[in-house]
Amino acid sequence: MIDRTRSVALALAVGLTACGGSTGEAAESPGMEDVAATMAMEARARIGDSEAGQTLLRAIDAAGGLETWYATPTSAYAWEYGNVGGDIQFKSYLVADNHSRRMYHDLQTLGAYGDPQEIDARFAWDGTDAWIWPADVDGVNPRFWASTGYYFSSIPFVLADPGVVLESLPDEELDGVMYDMVRAGYEEGVGDASDTYTLYVDKESGRVRAIRYTVTFGGRPASGENLFYYDDYTTVDGLTVPTRFRGFPFADGEKGELRNEAWVTDISFRQPFDEAMLAIPEGGRIQPMPGGN
Fold it and tell me: What topology is assigned to 2-292 in CATH?
């Protein structure tokens, strides 16, 4: 997932730098609204001719719209994730540059599910490498986790990125309700993985109620689908986003027992991005892809 955010960021950055300044600076420049409008127009032209693209755009509009999304300089929030009954639960404060897709985390707690402990640690994706500090922190793979929380929290917006392939699916029932369905995959060579994301889009509100997804990180084959509910929406800085996530294994149209859950708090889409936080501190380590790639 990390390299995917890097590849789509190039297309996003072109329009921003053309307006003058770095991507972070351009986000607050007088011409930012014009740049955001142009980027939104290009995205709508790229995906809006298909039924799948129209469904996705309806979900994006229900969440605040592409113009608002492209005009936000950063996404910042506390992301807490737990593998239910398992060996990991952690909380980090994430700040992501929405245009370069670089991001850094202040890791606050880490431990077994139900018993996370306070920790002084950091990890980041600097656009080239994923790193963690200190080097002996165990349990959080920064190559995977640096952008995972950001990516899930930023659906449906990030599915309008260049390189995304959309497919319309037949309506499907979830918990007794019928939903419009759209599947997103990626062109060959985009990202560290060939994951797919299938969105359940509410027919009336356009809001994403849940997604199904596969995980193929590092070239590993998908181990089956997962169902992820998007709950407890809130509106911050013009964007309407979920703050509660619940995950279940999903097979043959049926969900299993609760597998994982996540929470988002302290949300801002206007926090400054500190470039200095991308530099790996002394005593940190760079995380390679599985297999050393």
Answer: outer membrane lipoprotein receptor (LolB), chain A (2.50.20)
